[in-house]
Amino acid sequence: xxxxxxxxxxxxxxxxxxxxxxxxxxxxxxxxxxxxxxxxxxxxxxxxxxxxxxxxxxxxxxxxxxxxxxxxxxxxxxxxxxxxxxxxxxxxxxxxxxxxxxxxxxxxxxxxxxxxxxxxxxxxxxxxxxxxxxxxxxxxxxxxxxxxxxxxxxxxxxxxxxxxxxxxxxxxxxxxxxxxxxxxx
Length: 185
Known about the structure:
Elements: E1 5-10, H1 14-17, E2 29-34, H2 37-49, H3 63-75, E3 84-85, H4 86-92, H5 96-99, H6 120-132, H7 146-159, H8 169-174
Parallel strand pairs: 1-3
Antiparallel strand pairs: 1-2
């Protein structure tokens, strides 16, 4: 039983082979990336949905999986290899990064509630921190107003953050505060 792998073509540098005679061609470099069992199951499931596979979705790449992939490739006018390649993966509707075991990008943290819903004590904490950093000159009164929002925007611009004037998790963290320490109404 041969493990399932994704084949990818890559360019070969002539320097790697030394001088190349006129008219001589260098075969394209191909590398094989093993696919984890969970990805094999995804391929088997997609082949089953396409009507090409009737075997068990067990994550084991056996001869029945190879035959199913060959049938799928033939029915979709792809090069029939019985192995995954970029065209086959795309036609199956699979994400190559997921197949290779790469974790999907982490979802952005949820946006905090609007700053004007902060409790006065948390607003005072933000105002004090902005004042100590030299961005806020207003009163530390616990009221979220235009001067506090402007100070947050100036802080964000200074730190290379999106200058929204809103307290994002990145902004609060850059201020040296914990987003979890702020209390909302």
